[in-house]
């Protein structure tokens, strides 16, 4: 097979431990299947700041741009709390999203049958849950200008952020949501706050037009984002695909993740537009969980979200659908077998560490 | 007792039905206790638009400003979906908040023991839950300028909203949160997104300073708003008072409300600053639920949130602590007795309508 270039940004905290398990899986695939993956490591987040004073170096940024796909671990930790705003660990991730133009963030919230009982929600509310949050990732209040703190004198400051959305941004993200819905239950729910935000009014209008013009076969609902959050908690199975902006997507996807009872399990994909010539999309794959500095280095982190992110990479960047299915089946199999890292441990199950969990998944692959 | 002027804005949907039950309670208090309430009705929301083309008239706005307290029902419904943005039902509520300078929105999320089983969360997660969300209500992205849709030509538009917070706004809302925490479990959690928003950086800084300068006896934690949403779903009892901005407060308080399994039960208070001379605060009391147009006019709406909002009014606007306690005890008593409106009905309980529920609470008062 053709050589596939993966750029690995393990980052901080439990990022490197989780990434190590993916590396083993990649080696196994190269050895057994001749998958042709070539990997290179870079630095992002606090470790990058420690190394060269920025949350990602220009050299690593260039490698991310050139790779077929980027695998990202996690960034941040108390060590870097006092770092200047521009160099804070998150800035590395935000620069990757912006410079690679990864406008479409796909966050599946799936409740693995073996884990339904570990949710804080009633089992019948979450069992079998399978929703996909499509979050706009390069616009909105994350990147709009002005974004600044102004000194007004007299001990008064003013903090300003700007939410900006253009028609084309809403069009392309809703297009992604509608396309994905067609491969699922054919139902999209768009969420905004059109009752207080002008960007929400435009969002609603453009999603409605895009639907009418190109995706009338898909069922479309609109929900105010606050009501949407409530409905996620009340009865999440009413949703199939949710499409929303950057900030609401941040909140809602984390809540959806928590419903499943296992944030250590959930992957995400961030995709750019297909290149006009090569049709290839820039892409970054990342677990939903953070760097979890409190458990870093102890060998107890759950590597499943990182491994599942690699499965998304196989599916979306390389069209390796069969291999992706196999990775996901291997994860389900070790769970059925009763293996659990500490974060998802429950009575009668077998506690394992990061490495054992990774080994078990690779053995089932 | 001195005359107490209440201005009643029942609004749309189930607002008037719920307000009718409060009116009965007010009459009963006047008759039995000589409480001295004088009420006047006004229009807000869709019904105000139908009557005079604005979501609230200047005359009613003046009455709200002059009253000792405003009781507010709910606004909106599909009938007014196509109304111009400036006259949409919500604009009435937003004008009340802004013109009365009701910067502090208090949203208790209490799980009544009798209802713990009706939450979508596991009983042990929500039983005994008692948290208070203190939401900033007159600033942030709700009111910041520019707020507009610009036509860029070529079929492209740009939607813009602006999040703005000044030091004094953050100082006064966190002061309210700290004061209230002292009457509770003495613990405040402040939530923002300082990792992506400059207003979040300022928020974090000012809350920290306010704490240090005046409330060092209160326990203070900071949490990113997305993580806060997750923690609310995972283990809400870790919180006592949560203080956050207007938009995050909108999302988080609705999620907190849904945890309790009974959004039809939850009241809110919106308070202004104490007047320099009279020490009185402008105030508006409002159920957390909306206008629920689908069940309006059927006599099945739950009036408890509206009645509990009046209890908050007794407590915060008139210092009638004993009476407020009695109203809240009466609500708990009818629930213990097994009476339920449709929205909170469960097996073995007695279904009652809006009027019966109101009567039962008044009888227990
Ligand atoms: C780390 C942070 C900047 C990021 C975000 O807010 O987008 C994270 O919360 C996420 O959801 O990926
Ligand atoms: C009706 C709407 C404008 C309002 C808000 O967004 O503040 C509502 O959702 C609330 O929380 O009171």
TrEMBL record, chains A, B:
Domain of life according to the entry: Bacteria
Pathway membership, UniProt: Amino-acid biosynthesis; L-leucine biosynthesis; L-leucine from 3-methyl-2-oxobutanoate: step 3/4
Record's cofactor remark: Binds 1 Mg(2+) or Mn(2+) ion per subunit.
Cellular localisation: Cytoplasm
Chain positions of site Important for catalysis: 142, 193
UniProt name for this protein: 3-isopropylmalate dehydrogenase
Chain sites annotated for binding NAD(+): 77-90, 290-302
Source organism: Mesorhizobium kowhaii
Binding site for substrate: 97, 107, 135, 226
EC numbers, comma separated: 1.1.1.85
UniProtKB keywords: Amino-acid biosynthesis, Branched-chain amino acid biosynthesis, Cytoplasm, Leucine biosynthesis, Magnesium, Manganese, Metal-binding, NAD, Oxidoreductase
One Gene Ontology molecular-function label: NAD binding
Cofactors required: Mn(2+); Mg(2+)
Recorded family membership: Belongs to the isocitrate and isopropylmalate dehydrogenases family. LeuB type 1 subfamily.
Function: Catalyzes the oxidation of 3-carboxy-2-hydroxy-4-methylpentanoate (3-isopropylmalate) to 3-carboxy-4-methyl-2-oxopentanoate. The product decarboxylates to 4-methyl-2 oxopentanoate.
Subunit note: Homodimer.
Transmembrane segments: none
Binding site for Mg(2+): 226, 250, 254
Residue span, Isopropylmalate dehydrogenase-like domain: 5-361
InterPro entries assigned to the protein according to its UniProt record, in alphabetical order: IsoCit/isopropylmalate_DH_CS, IsoPropMal-DH-like_dom, Isopropylmalate_DH
Top class in the EC scheme: oxidoreductase
GO BP term (any one): L-leucine biosynthetic process
A single cellular component GO annotation: cytosol
Pfam families assigned to the protein according to its UniProt record, in alphabetical order: Iso_dh
């Amino acid at each position: 097979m053709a050589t596939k270039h993966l750029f690995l940004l393990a980052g901080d905290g439990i990022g490197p431990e989780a990434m190590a398990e993916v590396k083993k899986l990649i080696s196994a695939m190269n050895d057994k299947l001749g998958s042709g993956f070539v990997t290179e490591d870079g630095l992002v987040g606090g470790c990058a700041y420690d190394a060269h004073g920025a949350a990602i170096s220009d050299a690593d940024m260039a490698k991310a741009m050139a790779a077929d796909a980027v695998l990202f671990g996690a960034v941040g930790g108390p060590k870097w709390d006092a770092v200047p705003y521009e160099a804070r660990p998150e800035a590395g991730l935000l620069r990757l999203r912006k410079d690679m133009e990864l406008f479409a963030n796909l966050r599946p919230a799936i409740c693995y049958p073996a884990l339904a009982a570990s949710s804080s929600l009633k089992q019948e509310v979450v069992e079998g849950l399978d929703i996909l949050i499509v979050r706009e990732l390069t616009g909105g209040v994350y990147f709009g200008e002005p974004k600044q703190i102004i000194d007004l004198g007299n001990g008064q400051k003013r903090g300003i952020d700007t939410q900006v959305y253009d028609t084309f941004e809403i069009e392309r993200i809703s297009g992604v949501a509608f396309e994905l819905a067609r491969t699922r239950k054919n139902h999209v729910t768009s969420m905004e706050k059109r009752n207080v935000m002008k960007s929400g009014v435009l969002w609603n209008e453009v999603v409605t037009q895009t639907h009418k013009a190109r995706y009338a076969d898909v069922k479309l609902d609109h929900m105010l984002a606050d009501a949407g959050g409530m409905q996620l908690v009340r009865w999440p199975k009413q949703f199939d695909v949710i499409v929303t902006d950057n900030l609401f997507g941040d909140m809602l996807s984390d809540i959806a993740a928590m419903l499943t009872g296992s944030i250590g399990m959930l992957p995400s994909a961030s995709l750019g537009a297909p290149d006009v010539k090569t049709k290839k999309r820039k892409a970054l794959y990342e677990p939903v969980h953070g760097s979890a500095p409190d458990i870093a280095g102890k060998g107890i982190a759950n590597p499943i979200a990182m491994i599942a992110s690699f499965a998304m990479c196989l599916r979306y960047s390389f069209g390796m659908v069969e291999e992706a299915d196999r990775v996901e089946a291997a994860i389900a199999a070790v769970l059925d077998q009763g293996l659990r890292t500490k974060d998802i441990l429950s009575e009668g199950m077998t506690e394992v560490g990061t490495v054992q969990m990774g080994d078990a998944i690779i053995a089932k692959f």
